[in-house]
Specification:
Length: 83
């Protein structure tokens, strides 16, 4: 199945990427404006190197799950720092 978000022009893709990663309402607005569903958003974000942190539910850049010595964590950098 094709992902509606992958078919958007690249300037719109980067807009949504940034918006979803940094704005609490980003996902909601993306769904209502593009017609994409949750799965499409997850896939779109993953394909663009963002992962959802299970602790804070925010999408974070993939590198935030990997620390300096290369260990991969489940939670993002920000959540690990809060502990
Ligand atoms: Zn987090």
């Amino acid at each position: 199945m094709s992902n509606r978000l992958d078919e958007l022009p690249s300037d719109q893709q980067s807009h949504w990427l940034d918006y979803i990663a940094h704005c609490a309402l980003g996902e909601q607005e993306c769904m209502s404006e593009t017609g994409a569903d949750q799965d499409e958003i997850e896939e779109f974000m993953l394909n663009n190197d963002y992962e959802r942190c299970p602790a804070c539910q925010w999408f974070e850049e993939t590198f935030k799950f990997i620390d300096d010595d290369g260990a991969v964590h489940e939670e993002c950098e920000d959540c690990r720092e809060d502990k």
